[in-house]
Amino acid sequence: MTISTSYRWLAVPALLLTLTACDQNGDDQSADQPDAAQPSSETTDAQNPQEGLSPTFVNRTITAPDCEGDDCASVEIHMIKFDNDPALSSELERRLVRMGNPISESGVDKDALPATLDAYADDFFDQSAQANADSDHPRPYYTTLEAKEVGHHDDLLVLELQSYVMTGGAHGLPGTEYMVIDEKTRQVVTLDDMLKEGQKSAYESALKNAWQRWMKDNEAGKTLDPIDWPFSTSDNAAPLADNMAVTYGVYTLGPYAIGQPTLTIPYSDLENVLKPRFLPNATADTAESK
């Protein structure tokens, strides 16, 4: 069963300032049904064309069909749709699907991934059913996938995509990725797009300095031995209003217990590293004058 609620913000600069949504119980037999396993009832306010991206925040909880009680497998989704840019919406959904697949040593072939979150839920429920077949003590199976705004400045929209996948065991597997959208071009930009030509090593040097500060000043970082947990670089970077944030996955800079560390690089360390387009206005003006 799918429970779905959508909200529209009419002022893009104030995107997602508040979110209050309550799931509704029960099936809506008149609603569209993406597939037989997951009936869906979804309401959306009337279209209001406007300049720029038109975001809608959608909450959905999908539970395994023909299952009752607290042990049912479920997929909880909190995501953004851009009503006037289906391509961006599809890209965001594709990324959430990828994050919802447990990491394996061989990796996940992106061409073999489900095309939609509904198809992902179907596959996830099949895995749960197989894992718990003939078991008197079923292992918990649930996924949470979320996209939220963490930055909006200089025509850059920064989304943080988060996942938590539980397939039994002592704990689930969390994940965090950034999705940076240039609102002028409506294109997703990567770290390589943001860097000046030939400046990848300078970025990595600035990131290593941020890691050293984190090891020295952060309570979790202080507990780690750099021999056991050495520095590693990451392209998972977000140009926020005050600094560049770089978030790591679990087991990368430290054990599971420290979570997903975020290192921050001040823009003063990136003035000649990032293209002016991806520096805040004041910093970009200073960089261009040098």
From TrEMBL:
Keywords: Signal
Polar residues: bias regions: 42-57
Cleavable signal peptide: 1-23
Record bears the keyword NAD: no
Record-linked InterPro entries: DUF3298, PdaC/RsiV-like_sf
Region annotation Disordered: where it falls in the sequence: 26-57
Biased composition (Low complexity): 31-41
Any one Pfam family match given in the protein's UniProt record, by short name: DUF3298
Start and end residues of each DUF3298 domain: 192-268
Name the record gives this protein: DUF3298 domain-containing protein
Organism in which the protein naturally occurs: Kushneria phyllosphaerae
